Amino acid sequence: MLYEYNDFLEQLLFQYKEGGDVVLRDLFFHEDRDRLKRRYRGYTMVLIPSAAEKNEERGFYALAEMVSKIDLPKVSLFYKSENRKQSTLSYEKRQAIHEVIHLRKDVILPKGKLLLVDDVCTSGATLACAYHLLQPFTKQIEALVLSVNPRFLKGLEMHRHSLWRKGSKFTR
Predict the structure, then answer these.
(1) How far lies 14's CA from each of 49, 159, 162, in Å?
(2) pLDDT tens for each residue of the chain, 172 residues long
C-alpha cells in the first residue's frame, strides 16, 4: 500500500479514469518507481483488470498506464466477464467478485514470483480472488496497491496477530 484512500485521491482517480485525463498517469506511482523496481526485482506485475467496456470507453487501460514507467515485466492474466463497479456494491456483493474475474486462457502464466497490482483496495475481495486463481500455479504471490480504504486497514489492524500466525506479510 502506498496511500490511504481519501477524498483527494478519489477525485484524482476520477479525473484520471472517468475524465480521461491520461496525463495524470505519472502522478500515481512516480515517487515510488525506483524503490518498487528494487523491492520487486525478479517479480512479474500482474495487473488487476478493468472491464473491457470501461477500457474502450476511456480509450486506455488505466492501471496499465499508471504502472507503465515501472521497469518490471507486466502481464494481464485476468479478464472481467461483466462491467461490475466494485465501489457501488455492498460488502457482501463485493465478495462475489469471483463470478466476474477469470483467468485468461490465451496467456502463458509467467514462471516465478508474481506481484498483483491494483489501484484501490476497498474490501480485499478482488485481490483475494486473483490470489486464489493464481495460487495453484506459483509459490510466491505478493500484492501492491496504490491506495487502501481506511476501513479495510482497520480490519487488518484488528486481525494483525492472526495474519502473522498464518504466515502472511502485513506491513503498514
Answers:
(1) 17, 31, 35
(2) 899 999 999 999 999 999 999 999 999 999 999 999 999 999 999 999 999 999 999 999 999 999 999 999 999 999 999 887 766 777 777 788 889 999 999 999 999 999 999 999 988 999 999 999 999 999 899 999 999 999 888 777 655 544 333 334 433 3
Pick one of 3.30.1330, 2.60.120, 3.40.50, 1.10.1740 as the CATH number of 3-165.
Answer: 3.40.50
Distance (Å, whole) CA 114 – CA 40? 9
C-alpha 14/C-alpha 10 separation (Å) is 6
